[in-house]
Amino acid sequence: MAFNERLANRIRERLSNLPDIEEKTMMGGLVFMVNDKMCIGIIKDEMMCRIDRIFHEAAIEMRGCRTMDFTKRPMLGYVLIDETGMKTNAEFDYWINLCLDFNKYAKASKRKEIPDL
Question: Which of 2, 47, 108, 111 has the most CB atoms lying inside 10 A of its own CB?
Fold first, then answer.
């Protein structure tokens, strides 16, 4: 796979005590769905965090954090954290908790219905 398996295991361990966690491969990486909503992901060696937009500007000022621009367009509410921003357990937990806190209020994506053939 094209994502950091060590980081995936670190996230798995942190989320292991939570119900309704699902892993999906997408965008060449891995996404952790919480309550059927995209919450945390991995793109190459970076952790993708879905956060409340009101924290976006403050978040990108933190070490190792930048706006996600997967499609060459900035995506407010989505940030990428490199290794320097999550070296310690406290830093890592900060980002995970920020994602989980927002997940309670985030809207789920509308599921596309697949027509019967």
Answer: 47
